[in-house]
UniProtKB/TrEMBL annotation:
Name of the gene: der
Protein's name in the database: GTPase Der
Organism: Nitrospirillum amazonense
Positions contributing to GTP 1 binding: 13-20, 60-64, 123-126
Family according to the record: Belongs to the TRAFAC class TrmE-Era-EngA-EngB-Septin-like GTPase superfamily. EngA (Der) GTPase family.
Binding site for GTP 2: 203-210, 250-254, 315-318
Keywords: GTP-binding, Nucleotide-binding, Repeat, Ribosome biogenesis
Record's subunit section: Associates with the 50S ribosomal subunit.
Entry function: GTPase that plays an essential role in the late steps of ribosome biogenesis.
Length: 462
């Protein structure tokens, strides 16, 4: 079959004209934070989209501001310029209800000089309120405007017609393509290795998450600076490390819930938690000056409860005076506060100076391997028999609990089912004994283990 034709489309315009709404519409899901407050989007982000048979890579950008210094607005504008340069076509969005503004005219003149072809889109054209603004669009010199309503999905057929001339030519169909054959175990493992590792970077505000992502990619992909809370949307970037595909996701900083009052921050926190749920491995970035405070522990517990692999990166390590004391403090806090995930890799890094980033990624891929680990049932039950002989289950009401057998029901994370005559009466300390034994015997540090207690007979096939 012929491969679908794909376009990279950058959505650009001044603040609050509906760029993120159109991005979500084309992506088919609510990925970008949408709010009436201008300047919500600060970094460009991309997603796969689909529109009437056209495959899209849709890029949402920050609102264009007339700023050319080192301010946050100027850095946002430079990020948008990079996104436009990489696109096949740009969608310049104006607010038809507000009419054409001097800022629209300024940026239209700038876009006309660029190499990227531009389609003018008049948003918010539902009803009659946008008609005067639609007529004003012709003065921008960007051709016929495409009237639509991103919020209500009106005018998408006109947008398809405007995008069609920029589509690449069809590729010929491969008539000799053979039907796919079933994969053997080695081929299936190779296929899984070819899938990108979903690696999320989380932490408190201003600990260096965005700097870490930029250092790993080797470019200024996201905005960085001294301002706390700069990242709002979760920003994903496709990348490859040692021939292994990685999808890096930078997230908004997570503060204590009691301090989160602003509506935009609440939306950003919800977006970060969504990313954690979708991740394979999460890198929790700590500030070396405040190692593993209460909020860091809360984030770590959330990651473990979601069943994700966890790696801790202690950033700004180059500025630490007493490193032995700092490491001991971190070790003590992990031992006492996170016993449910012992053996979490702890890597000391400097994101700004790009120190020990390879070590960090080695640890992330090792945690990912353990997170996918499967243990044969026969091997599990031989281990279980030895554990029961070393430390038999306790007596309950004068009777010994009978533990029949166990099996691993799934991976990602490793999840085990233990079958017993009276599962609800197995005390928690005995469950911890078995979990700790599993970790030690089968070398499963750093990943959360889930233990399900089930009622079962002596026959495992019953």
């Amino acid at each position: 079959m012929a491969s679908p034709r794909r376009l990279t489309v950058a959505i650009i315009g001044r603040p609050n004209v509906g760029k993120s709404t159109l991005f979500n519409r084309l992506a088919g899901k609510k990925l970008a934070i949408v709010d009436d407050t201008p300047g919500v989007t600060r970094d460009w982000r991309s997603a796969d989209g689909h529109l009437a048979g056209i495959e899209l890579t849709v890029v949402d950008t920050a609102g264009l501001e007339e700023a050319f210094d080192d301010s946050l607005e100027a850095r946002m504008r430079r990020q948008t310029e990079r996104a436009i340069e990489r696109a096949d076509v740009g969608l310049f969005i104006v607010d038809a209800r507000a009419g054409i503004t001097p800022l629209d005219r300024h940026f239209a003149a700038w876009l006309r000089k660029g190499k990227t072809p531009i389609i003018l889109v008049a948003n918010k054209c539902e009803g009659n309120a946008g008609k005067p603004g639609l007529m004003e669009c012709y003065e921008l010199g960007l051709g016929d405007p495409v009237p639509l309503s991103a919020e209500h999905g009106e005018g998408m057929a006109d947008l398809v017609e405007a995008l069609t001339p920029y589509l690449p030519p069809d590729e010929p169909e491969d008539e000799e393509a053979e039907a796919e054959e079933p994969l053997d175990d080695e081929a299936a493992e190779a296929r899984d290795n070819a899938k990108p590792l979903q690696l999320a970077i989380v932490g408190r505000p201003n600990v260096g998450k965005s700097t870490l992502l930029n250092s790993l990619l080797g470019e200024e992909r996201v905005l960085t600076g001294p301002e706390a809370g700069m990242t709002r949307d979760a920003i994903a970037a496709e990348w490859s490390w040692r021939d292994r595909p990685v999808k890096l996701v930078d997230t908004a900083g997570l503060r204590r819930r009691a301090r989160v009052e602003d509506k935009l921050e609440k939306l950003a926190v919800a977006d970060t938690l969504r990313v954690v749920r979708m991740a394979h491995v999460v890198v929790l970035v700590l500030d070396a000056d405040a190692i593993l405070d209460k909020q860091d522990l809360t984030i770590a517990r959330q990651v473990i409860e979601e069943g994700r692999g966890l790696v801790i990166a202690v950033n700004k390590w180059d500025a630490v005076a007493n490193r032995a004391e700092a490491l001991q403090q971190l070790s003590d806090r992990l031992e006492t506060s996170l016993p449910q995930a012992r053996g979490i890799p702890t890597i000391t890094i400097s994101a700004l100076k790009q120190q020990k980033l390879d070590v960090l990624l080695d640890a992330a891929f090792e945690v990912y391997r353990l997170w996918n680990r499967r243990i044969p049932t026969a091997q599990l039950n031989r281990w279980l028999q030895g554990m029961l002989e070393s430390h038999p289950p306790p007596l309950v009401d004068g009777r010994r609990l009978k533990i029949r057998y166990m099996t691993q029901v799934k991976a990602r994370p490793p999840t085990f089912a233990l079958f017993s005559s009276r599962p609800v009466e197995i005390p928690e300390h005995y469950t911890r004994y078995l979990i700790n034994g599993l970790r030690e015997t089968f070398k499963l540090p750093a990943v959360p283990l889930r233990f399900l207690l089930r009622k079962g007979s002596d026959n495992p096939f019953d």
